[in-house]
Design a protein that fits this description.
Microtubule inner protein component of sperm flagellar doublet microtubules. The protein has about 400 residues and is an all-alpha fold. It has helices at about 15-90, 100-105, 105-120, 130-150, 155-190, 215-240, 240-320, 330-395. It folds into 2 domains: about 60-190 and about 215-270, Up-down Bundle (Substrate Binding Domain Of Dnak, Chain:A, Domain 2); about 280-320 and about 330-395.
Length: about 400
């Protein structure tokens, strides 16, 4: 028990200074952290205030824009509604000679369908609903519209009146909905932060207004208007000379056919450009892969070069641990050897981590290379479909004057 009564261990002056420095640095770090937190909180308060004002202003602006959109489309729909009312009152019966024209629609219609079908053979990301497909679908719709229009000219006036009344019904329904929507949005636009009766609940409105997108909403208006135009044109065709009807339908088909051709040219050019860019990316990627392989090899060499110095330092420490009695002193040499082992181990660890990251990056580059090669093949396939097959299908087509 006599060792318990001995004097406590004493520290070196360097250890005393080191302990003081640790306390100083810890205190300074904690104070700096507190100052940064305070500054960040103040920035957050200012940012939230600015964001709130901006959001309200933006919402007000969008409400006003929405009201203008509704008014515009309501006026357009109201105009078409009045035209339908007048068309019902003035509808006349005319004879038509459309059999030959109807037969002439068969070839371009079949070519359009074949182009739509063959373009379904595009693969991967290139199987996109692009402008060409939109124009082909428009072309299909135009030809079908012409065929329907020519066929309807053989029907009696009662059928045409029924069709116009159907369009009139949907226009009227759409006008009523837009009147109600405009009234509600006018009310919303007048609300301010000081308005009484504001909703103070925490209801979840995330699903409100998501049933129809603005694009779908506008497309519904356009659809109703286009239907009105179509039926108006159908009715006018019954009151127009046969030659005028055939001339107009031919012009519509030719215009859409040319628009589709321009869309094909633009799409082919875009695809060629994309293919060239992908090929350039592939070349750059291959070069980067070579650089990464060199980097990987240099890291391996660096790790290997650190092994020998580490073993030397560890051997020295092991040997010096055999010093006898008081010679087993924690002298500067011992301190430096311990630091050397620690630093060398740290270097090896960091280099090893970098080596693993380099290996992972090399694998990622290989995957990206495969992806680029596949995408280039996709673009090649798309070019063959659009530039060769569809071009050969459409080249013989001529829109005749009926």
């Amino acid at each position: 028990m006599s060792w318990l009564m001995g004097s406590p261990d004493k520290f070196l002056p360097s250890e005393w200074k080191h302990a003081n420095q640790v306390h100083f640095r810890s205190s300074e770090a904690e104070r700096s952290l507190s100052q940064r937190l305070t500054a960040e909180c103040q920035r957050l308060v200012e940012e939230s205030d600015k964001s709130t004002k901006h959001m309200q202003q933006d919402a007000q602006k969008k409400l006003e824009q929405r009201i203008q959109d509704i008014k515009f489309w309501r006026q357009e729909l109201d105009q078409k509604f009045e035209e339908m009312v007048q068309e019902i009152e003035t509808l006349l019966i005319f004879k038509s000679r459309v059999e030959r024209a109807l037969e002439s629609c068969s070839e371009p219609f079949q070519v359009t369908l074949q182009c739509l079908t063959v373009r379904q053979k595009r693969v991967a990301i290139d199987l996109v609903h692009d402008e060409v497909e939109e124009e082909l679908l428009k072309e299909k719709e135009v030809i079908e519209g012409v065929m329907v229009l020519l066929q309807r000219t053989l029907e009696q006036i009662n059928e045409q009146i029924r069709l116009i009344r159907s369009v009139k019904y949907y226009l009227e329904k759409d006008l009523q909905d837009k009147f109600q929507a405009e009234r509600i949005d006018d009310f919303c636009a007048l609300l301010t932060n000081a308005s009484p009766g504001l909703n103070r609940g925490n209801s979840d409105f995330s699903s409100v207004g998501t049933a129809v997108t603005p694009e779908e909403w506008e497309s519904l208006c356009i659809l109703n208007i286009s239907k009105a135009e179509k039926e108006k044109n159908n009715s006018l065709s019954l009151r127009a000379l046969v030659d005028s009807l055939l001339e107009q339908t031919t012009a519509d088909m030719r215009r859409q056919y040319e628009a589709t051709g321009r869309a094909f040219e633009l799409r082919i050019e875009e695809t060629k450009t994309a293919k060239t860019q992908l090929e350039n990316q592939l070349n750059e990627l291959l070069a980067e892969t070579a650089n990464q392989e060199k980097n990987l090899e240099s890291l391996r060499v660096a790790v290997a070069e650190k092994e020998a110095p580490l073993k030397v330092a560890q051997t020295r420490l092991s040997s010096r641990s055999q010093r006898p009695n008081v010679e087993l002193c924690h002298d500067p040499a011992q301190i430096r050897l311990l630091e050397e082992v620690k630093e060398l181990a740290n270097h090896i660890e960091r280099l090893t981590k970098a080596l693993k990251l380099s290996e992972m990056e090399l694998k990622a580059l290989a995957r990206r290379q495969l992806s680029l090669e596949e995408e280039i093949q996709v673009k090649t396939n798309s070019l063959y479909i659009d530039e060769v097959i569809c071009h050969q299908l459409r080249q013989p087509v001529v829109i005749h004057n009926f």
